[in-house]
Amino acid sequence: VFVFSRPVRFEEVDAARIVFFARYFNICHDAMEAFFGPLPGGYAGLIVGRKIGFPAVRAECDFKSSLRYGDVVRAEVTVPHVGKTSVTFAYRLVRESDGVEVGIAKQTCVVCELETMKKTPIPDDVRALLVAHAT
Amino acid sequence: VFVFSRPVRFEEVDAARIVFFARYFNICHDAMEAFFGPLPGGYAGLIVGRKIGFPAVRAECDFKSSLRYGDVVRAEVTVPHVGKTSVTFAYRLVRESDGVEVGIAKQTCVVCELETMKKTPIPDDVRALLVAHAT
Amino acid sequence: VFVFSRPVRFEEVDAARIVFFARYFNICHDAMEAFFGPLPGGYAGLIVGRKIGFPAVRAECDFKSSLRYGDVVRAEVTVPHVGKTSVTFAYRLVRESDGVEVGIAKQTCVVCELETMKKTPIPDDVRALLVAHAT
Amino acid sequence: VFVFSRPVRFEEVDAARIVFFARYFNICHDAMEAFFGPLPGGYAGLIVGRKIGFPAVRAECDFKSSLRYGDVVRAEVTVPHVGKTSVTFAYRLVRESDGVEVGIAKQTCVVCELETMKKTPIPDDVRALLVAHAT
Question: To probe the interface with D, which of B8, B9, B10, B11 has the most D CB atoms within 10 Å?
Fold first, then answer.
C-alpha cells in the first residue's frame, strides 16, 4: 500500500461547504502522481520527458463521508490489476483526524504515447513499480 | 432527455493536452445544475434559498474519447432512478463537432438538508422535474 | 464595450462561502475568450489552430464586493491599450441582480507563437477586433 | 521571509501548455495558508474554528516567466504592510530548478468576521505572526 496525505485545499470546498465530489478524483490523481515519485522525474518525467500518459478509461467512487476545509485526507493506493497496456488503481480515502473512510475509488488507465494517443505497452520500470503494489 | 451544451474551457485541459478526466464530472454537474433550471432560482435556489443539497454517494464514468480545447461537449441527461431520498442521473457526453460519444457517466445523489447533512425526502416540485426525465 | 454574463459556478465558492478571489481572473478570462468569438473558431481557433497565445504579463484586480452562488456576473470588457505585440484588457465586473460593481480588473498580455513562446506582432484580424473595443 | 514550495499540479497547466495565469494566485494562496501554519489549526483554524477570513481587496501579479508541469515553484512571502484591519502580502515566485523569478505578486486582504463579512481588528496572535515577517 502506497500512502499519500494532504490537507483539503481552501478552494476545494463548494457552495454546500463540503469538498466538491469531483475533487475526490483530483485527490486520487494527486496520490497517483506521488505514487510515481520513485521514477526519475516522477510522474512529470513520464508525461513531459518520456511523453507517456495514463488517460483514464474508467473512474468510479463511492462517497462515504464528506470532507471539509481543515481536514487532512489520506489516500491508500493499491494496484488491483496490471495488464499489458492498462492498469487499475484502487484508492481508499480516509480522514486523518478520526480515521473515517470518506471514499473508495477505482480508476483504470491505459498507457499511451501522448504524441499519437496510441496505446503502448507499460514500460518495464513503470511495470515494476506497479507490480510492487499489486494486490 | 434534457440536453445541455458548453465549450471546453481553456483551463480544463491538462498537461497531456486533453480535458482532465475529473473535469468530466464537472461537466456532468454543470448539466445537472442546468437541469434544475425550471425550478425557481434554479439549482442555486435549492442550495442557497431552500438549503437543500444533493451530495453524491456514487459517481462513475467510462471515458470513450478525449476532449480538447475548441470542442463543444453536449450532455444528454436522463434520470434512471428516483427513490424516496435519492436520485440517479445518467449522462451521455457527446462531442458536438462529430457526434462522437466521449463519455458515459452516472451519479447517485442523496437529498439532504444542508444545515444538518441529514437525508430528507425529495420535495414534490423537485420530484416532478426528475420524474419528467425518468427512463 | 463587449459584454459577457455567466452564473457563478457551484465549485467556484470557497470555504468562506464567497467566490474565491483568484476565480475573478477566471471570469475575466472567460469574458476574453468570448470577446474573440467573432474570429473564425473563436479563441480556440487562435490557440489550437493558429497556435497563437496571449500569456499574461500582468494582471490586477480590485475586489469591491463578494460574489456568491446564485449570482450572475457580468463582465464589461474594453481594450485600453493595443501595442505592436501586446494588449491590455480592462474588465468591469458587475453583479446582475443589483448592478453592484464587484470587481475592476486589468490584464496585459503579449501575443506569442505558442511553439516557441516568442513574441509576435498582433495579426491584422485580431488587431481589428481589439481596436474596435479600444477606449 | 517565509518560504513555501510545491510542485506544479498536473491540472494547473492550460491549453497553451503553461500554468494558467490565474493559478499563480492559487499558488500565492497556498503559500498564505502555509504561512498561518504556526497558529493553532493553521489557516483552517481561523476560517472554520474562529470564523475569521481574509477576503482580498486587491491582488496583482507581474508574470516574468512561465511555469510548466514538472516545475517546482517556491514562494517567498513577506508582509510589507500590517494595518488595523488589513494586511498586504508580497510574494516572490521562483522556479526551483534554475532559480528564475517567474512572478511577483501582491495581495491586500481585510480581516473579516465571516458570519457578517464585517471588518474586524486583526487578532493579537495573527498580528504577531504577520509582524514577524514585516518588511
Answer: B11
